Amino acid sequence: MIFGIMQHQKLPRRRIQGEPFYHHPAEEVATAFSNEIRRKNVLVTDTSVGGIGFEAARVIAKYANLVIITGHNADRLKIAEDTLKKEVPSANIRKLILDLSSLAAVRNAAAEVNAFPEPLHVLIHNAASVIGPFKLTADNIENQAATNHIGPFLLTKLLCPKLLASGTGQYVPRVVFVSAKGHMFCEGVNFDTLERPDPESHEGMNAYFQTKVANILTGIELSKRSKGKINAYSLHPGFIDTNLLHKGDIPAALKKMGAFDADERPSNETYAWKTIPQGAATTVTAAFDPRINDKPGSYLDDCVVANETVAPHASDPGNAERLWTLTEKIIGEPFTF
Question: Transmembrane region positions (predicted)?
């Protein structure tokens, strides 16, 4: 479906066949949805300066009542806080130390948020682990799976009461998962290795792609199980060139995908590359666009619903239910409403 431009707001347009991409920065999107952002309390995971999460937090903070920023490194988190307050003097910013790779750390962070007096309107899962070799966490979970899926699942579960407290007859709280188009470059979640990590079969990029599948499936199942009490969405922010993409085995994988050319530079022949502000635009859209209220569980790309582009293994209801049940087993507690 292609959304047009609303009469009272200038909104991003989706690429139409034969036309160029329309890359609107997150700031324009936040301005368009400023009425929806006002009086909202928002938590964004991984808000390191120079990243998509920071940019989303920055533009949201111009209008929101409260923005909770997170990171596992206290020094970098303080830099993010200072930078946000300098760029948006009116912003109400609150720091939260959060290590998504540790179930105990997630529980500690959730307890801190639950002690805040304010309800939580929007939870944005932006954090992702660095793609790398096999590594087990203290909970015996593969590190990328822990940071990108298990930790966010547990955090959502623990913050669910605070999210539900923000719901009204006119407003449904939202949970947003930053996924990736790369979800289609794997065969889906390997449920066996998710439960029993296997260093012999591990491949860093494939493990990353599987977590992006998990993000989409969790958004679908969360929306289904909440029965209208929470609207969850997943999204592809776009291809964005950062130093991270030039490390380890990542360049070779991106060349195979057609995202990098032979010289390991971004190629626009297959995919349109974006700046960080442009990448954060879809995050802000998923968090606040009122036109997707009736499309919970949807996947967004270029600021619009793009469910038709989701790979079958990432949209299968059976996979979504199986992943939910297995993740409950891994965290050791049920996620019910």
Answer: none
Long-range CB pairs of 241-249 (<8 Å, 24+ gap) are 241/266, 241/273, 242/50, 244/130, 244/131, 248/131, 248/132, 248/204, 249/131, 249/204, 249/205
309-334 pLDDT per residue, tens: 999 999 999 999 999 999 999 999 99
H-helix or E-strand containing 328? helix 317-331
Catalytic position from the list 102, 129, 179, 267: 179
> Can you tell me the distance from the alpha carbon of 29 to that of 278, in angstroms, rounded to the nearest whole number?
10
Sorted by where each starts, the structural domains of the chain and their CATH numbers stand as 26-238+275-329 (3.40.50.720), 243-273 (no CATH)
Of 63, 208, 233, 299, which one is the catalytic site residue? 208
Contact, 175 vs 222, CB < 8 A?
yes
Is 212 known to be catalytic?
Answer: yes
Of residues 212, 226, 233, 299, which has the active-site annotation?
212
Range list of H helices, the chain: 26-32, 34-37, 52-61, 74-87, 103-114, 143-145, 151-164, 191-195, 204-226, 250-257, 276-288, 317-331
